[in-house]
Amino acid sequence: MMGRTIFIDPGRCIGCQACVSACRECDSHRGKSMIHLDYPEEGRSVASLPTVCMHCEDPVAPCAEVCPADAILVTADGVVQQADTTRCIGCANCVNACPFGVPKIDLQAKLQMKCNLCYDRTAYGLAPMCATVCPTGALFYGTLEELRAERPGVQVADSFTFGSTTISTGVAMVVPADKVQWPVPGGLPIVEVNGVDVR
User: Fold this and answer.
1) Taking the CB of the first residue and of the last residue of the chain, which one, N or C, has fewer CB atoms within 10 A?
2) What pLDDT digit, counting tens, does each position of 24-83 carry?
3) Are the C-beta atoms of residues 98 and 63 closer than 8 Å to each other?
4) Alpha-carbon distance 6 to 171, whole Å?
């Protein structure tokens, strides 16, 4: 896990979409949000979940590994950047490689879009736009020590399993203390990482 990162706390999300609006208004996003607000049980529950790039550390950024144009770079401090607009060919390999379903393709622009942790802000010690406006702290930006000082006893996960594959991430998820299970079960199993069949 990165030193200073985003901690997602789904139990605090009220679905207000402030994070989505703040992301969309960032100068570099040209009116498009790089964060998704999902409703896992839409119609049966009001539960909502902000989805940001998890900045996979191990294996390192499956989205970048499968990019044939080397458009997705990973910084020395582990931030997986959004696709370089001068290199991205909109092939969607990154969409298919991401176990968390984060990257999206702008079909008109033929360009990948995803969260880059507001690197233009975080590189200078500022919080990402989404965490800055979240009224409930569902998106917390800081260190694990800062999170635990504010929320004593909180448990976080930064490794997730997809089938037999475990992925460690730079962004962490707050998990209920009474339901801690390491690593946290992910979604659908991964079938290929870095061109290697891992089924």
Assistant:
1) C
2) 988 777 788 999 898 888 889 888 999 999 999 988 899 999 999 999 999 998 999 999
3) yes
4) 5
Residue 192 CA, distance from chain mean position: 20
Q: Is 8 exposed, middle or buried (0-12, 13-18, 19+ CB in 10 A)?
A: buried
List Cβ neighbours of 182 (8 Å cut-off, separation of 6 or more): 157, 159
Could you tell me whether strands 56-58 and 104-106 are parallel, antiparallel, or unpaired per DSSP bridges?
unpaired
What's the chain's length in residues? 199
Q: What angle do CA 7, 105, 129 make, to 5 degrees?
A: 35
For residues 76 and 73, give the distance between their C-alpha atoms in angstroms, rounded to a whole number: 10
pLDDT tens track for 72-124: 999 998 999 999 999 999 999 999 999 999 999 988 888 888 998 998 888 89
Please state, as a whole number, how many other Cβ atoms lie within 10 Å of the Cβ of residue 85.
10
Task: Please identify which residue in the block is written with the tokens 């498009």.
Answer: 32
**Dihedrals φ, ψ of 175, to 5°?**
-120, 150
Q: Which two tokens stand for residue 90?
A: 């909109």
Residue 18 half-sphere exposure toward CB, CA atoms < 13 A? 15
Task: In whole angstroms, give the CA distance from residue 188 to residue 157.
Answer: 18
